[in-house]
Amino acid sequence: MIFKRLCSVVVAALMLFLIVLAGIFAVPGIFGTHVYAVASGSMEPEYKVGSLVFAKRADVESIRPGDCITYSFGNSTVTHRVVTVDHEQKNCITKGDANEQEDPPVNFDRIIGVTDSFSLPVLGYLVIWLNETNAEMFFGCLILIMLLITATDVLALLKRRRRR
Length: 164
Hints:
Elements: H1 2-30, E1 33-37, E2 52-56, E3 68-73, E4 76-86, E5 91-95, E6 106-107, E7 111-120, H2 123-132, H3 135-163
Antiparallel strand pairs: 1-2, 2-7, 3-4, 3-7, 4-5, 5-6
Helix pairs in contact: 1-3
């Protein structure tokens, strides 16, 4: 009996966790905002390692020095502060707040969006970990476990109703 109650609590907690995660990643997307995890300390103290940052698509004409932008860099993304904008060359120069040197020029077509000053600490570690592992397998196993526990609860409930 205690085991079943514990399983129910665990399933409820996992479902709540998944709903919150889905909200964090899905809801901003509805409004054109993308969510990224901070994997390095180049922007500390503005964005701490392991934080989630939110980048909203913006017209390149509106980007100004001092704005933080997120841009693609090979297979990853970078969030750094704009130092200069060159509309003739269609690029900008960025620099991490904690870095000594400026970055190479970033072409406008690589800019994903302007990054909010708001960030969610710690949650980015989960994203970083999932990127390093097989996220589909992890969530698939998690959902399978929740379904199995829920199925045993439903079967137990049906047995109790039959006895009455």
